[in-house]
Structures are given as C-alpha cells and as structure tokens.
Amino acid sequence: MIKIADVVIVGGGISGVAIAYNLAKKGVKNVAVIEKSYLASGATGRCGAGIRQQWGTKMNCKMAKFSCEFFENAKEELKYEGDIEFKQGGYLILSSTEKEHEQFKKNIVLQNSLGIPSRLLTLEEAKEIVPFLNTDGLVSATFCQKDGHLNPFHTTEAFAKAAERLGVEIYRYTEVKDIIIEHGKVKGIRTDKGDISTNIVVNAAGGHAQVVAKMAGVDIPVYSERHQILVTEAIEPILDPMVMSFSLNLYCQQVPHGGLIMGRGDEGEPRDLRVTAGWHFLEEMAKTITSLLPPLKNVRMIRQWAGLYNITPDRQPILGALNEVEGLYLAVGFSGHGFMFGPATGVLIAESILGEETTLPIDMLNMNRFEKGQLIFEPSVV
Amino acid sequence: MSDNSIVCRCSDLTLEDIRKLIKKGYTTFDEIKRMNRAGMGPCQGRTCMPIILKEISIITGKPISEIAPGTYRPPVKAITLGQIVETSEGGGNEHD
Ligand SMILES: Cc1cc2nc3c(=O)[nH]c(=O)nc-3n(C[C@H](O)[C@H](O)[C@H](O)COP(=O)(O)OP(=O)(O)OC[C@H]3O[C@@H](n4cnc5c(N)ncnc54)[C@H](O)[C@@H]3O)c2cc1C
Predict the structure, then answer these.
(1) What ipTM is given for this predicted complex?
(2) Which of B28, B29, B34, B35 is best to mutate for the A interface (most A CBs within 10 A)?
(3) Which of A17, A78, A211, A301 is least enclosed by beta carbons within 10 angstroms?
(4) What is the pTM of this model?
C-alpha cells in the first residue's frame, strides 16, 4: 500500500470512482480509493440504476442532465471494453392526484426551460407507450425519452478501470478505520492494511457516511434507511420505459437482459445499517405493481435484496468541503438518487478540491445550508 | 472440464468465461456474479456456485474454505408476482 497520497477517497461506489477518475483526469497524481469490500458492493451495486432528468428543482435537473449527457458519451470517454448497458427507454412518471398533476405541469415548464425534452401526457398517450398500463386512479403522466437506466456494476467498473489507467490506486477489501486529524486539519487515514498520509480525504462512504465522518470527529445530519428491490426472471421485451410514480411509491423497469427490476419505499424501514430482505415489501410490491401493470402477475420473481439510502433533512446530497475540518470533503446523503448524479458528483468534487470554479453551482449543496436554514425542497422524489 | 463446458445454464456461461474473469482479478463469487450474471438466474447459483468456487481455488491457489461464497437471496424457488398477491393477507386462507 502506498504511504503518501494527494487525495484519499473513502468508498468505491459510483461517487468514489467518479471522483477519482476526474481528479486523475485533471492531473492529480497520487489518488487512492479505499473500499472495504469489492467495488459497487454498497448502494451502487444494489440500486435501480435509473437516471431521469425529470426533476422539480433547477439544481437536480441540471445535475441529472449533465450526468445523462455524460452517459451518452461514456463509451468514448471511459474507453470501457465491456458494456455499461445504457438504455434510453425514457421514464414514464404517473400522477394519481390533482395536486401531483399540478406539480407535473410546473415541472415540465422548468425542465423544458433547461433544455430537457420532457412532456406532459394524457393517460391515453401514456397507454401508447405502455399499452397494458392500468390507468384506473391515475390522472396524468410525464415522459422524457432521454431518461433511462444502466448496469451499475459495469458503470462503476468503467470509471474504475479508466481511473486506474490514469494512475489511481484502488484498494479493495481494505477498510478505513480512522481519520487522523491534527489541529483541525486532515493528516491521514488508518486502514486495516496500513496508514496513508494525506491532506485531503473525501468521504464517499454511502450508507456508512456518518460512521466515516465520526472518525474525523464530525456529526453530519444524515441517517441510513434500508430500501428493498427485486428482480424477475428474464422475459421477452415488454416494457420500454422506466415506469415510476411518487404517489403510488414505486418504480419498475425492464433491463436489456430481460429481467424486470422494481422497488418501492416500505413504511417503517429500520433506520440502521441492515440490508436484509423482508416479506412485507414483497407483498406490497407485488400488489401495487400487478395492479398497475397486470401482465406482470404471471412473471416469476427470482431475487430480492436491499441497500441503504443515505438520507439528509432535505433529501438532497451534501457536496463539497466541510468547514470544521480542513481537507475533509463530503459526497454523501444522496437520499436514493446518487447513482444518476455520479458523473456530476465526480466532476464537481474534483473541481472543488482543486479550487476551480465548479461547472454547476454546488455551494447550495454545502453542509452549511442546514445551519443557514437554506434547505432545498425537491417535490419529486420516491 | 474443457473450456467450453457450460457452467451456468441460466446465464449461458462457459468455463472459459469464468476463467477469464478470475484471471482478471475477480476472485470471489459475488464479484463474478456481478460482472457476468453467473448465478443471477432462476436457480440462484445452485449449479454454478460450487464449480466457480472450485475454479477460483485452482487459479488463485487458495483453499475453497477461504473463498467467500455467494450470498443466497430469497426466494428459494421462483414464484410469480400473482402468487405472492394471492397468498398475502386473507388471500391465502380463502384457498384452503
Ligand atoms: C434499492 C435502491 C434503489 C435505488 N435506485 C436508484 C436509482 O434508480 N437511481 C439512482 O440514481 N439512485 C438510486 N439509488 C441510490 C443510489 O444507489 C445511491 O445514491 C448511490 O449508489 C450512492 O453511491 P455512493 O458511491 O455514494 O455510495 P455507495 O455505493 O454506498 O458506496 C459507498 C462505498 O463505501 C464503502 N465503505 C463504507 N465504509 C467504508 C470504510 N470505512 N472503509 C472503506 N470503504 C467503506 C462501502 O463498502 C461502499 O462500497 C437506489 C438505492 C437503493 C438502495
């Protein structure tokens, strides 16, 4: 293991590898990523890996649009020999109340003003996209063809391999145990395989972000919550877009391989670091999805698992430097939508570490927004 | 076993596919599964897991007992979403 690094990144999920890649691309020589298990073993490898630009705040629309454009060109940029399986089948988002429909109208105006080609649909138009959609109880829909999903393992590998080619050292099966602080400044990290001296540490530890922050003596306002998901056997292609509804609390997509991946937020999930699978989720998921997409009744589900959402008070990530400890940066609190922001996270954190002007204004995502009371309210989340 | 013997029937993978990944440094069952879907099919890895663990052991020289086996995830047997709905709550009782 190296003894000295310019930057050490804790966590080998999409955020960690994207930050490492961007630092190396900008010429930073000694970058190390420390991952306690294998890459994408956290939320990244457990997530739906959907990306949508249909958001309700300017910031989120811009982060998602940036990332979507990155993924469209990822093959050339990252030169990955495998396939990241980016499928732009669109997101069909359904409203089931008048209030939600009103919000959708506002969202579309915002999205279109930022160059996002989304549109408001009647239920008849929604049925043209998904003919077997049961529209009972629904009001309207929005659709953006450029939204879609990826294979999260290969996307992470693609960033990791590109980063390694640029000289980044990735230590798998290595756990960060402590962060060494002297006089309010980062001096290094301690792992189960040895110590590394460094002046800059990035906390990209996903569901364990609060545990890693504690190592630097810092309390961050996040908690982790289990979210469950399942996959069916592979069947013929029947579903082009990701189907999602905030008010019905569900999402479902068919991946290129043929399996349908679906999830929903279950009530009363444990707020700890457990990632076991439960029966209650399965029942609720099966009921809601077969009511909305009836042909799925006959499809066999083959696997169920869970991952952690790392949640902030306003359900927006915390990005950037931490004022209390010099040299400590945060890329945490993605609140269930950090996969799609990965490319933007990578660029923005690299820029802020290097003191460059950031591509998107990330000041509003700094942790000090909670002290200042400047929370961001995103109306469109599951 | 020859290089083109099928190891994972669900995901149609040969021994060669598996050996390539092990040689590239993916030396646990879970990593191989995530790279090429070995064990992600309806059988949940019941056929391929022992073969893959053995192959990892041969190539890396580690005893099988030291190689992390894959995670078994529910359900044990594939079940339709419709059946789950029927057996939930009162539904299951009505059938008896
Ligand atoms: C069921 C589910 C569905 C989701 N669906 C979507 C979706 O469709 N779209 C979307 O954009 N987002 C989705 N998300 C959210 C998304 O998965 C996360 O926001 C994103 O993956 C976070 O990436 P990360 O790299 O920040 O964290 P993680 O992927 O969790 O990576 C953190 C890594 O840090 C490592 N680590 C932790 N502590 C230490 C330590 N002490 N030392 C070394 N390593 C350590 C962990 O092992 C882990 O690999 C979903 C999440 C879940 C759970």
Answers:
(1) 0.88
(2) B34
(3) A211
(4) 0.95
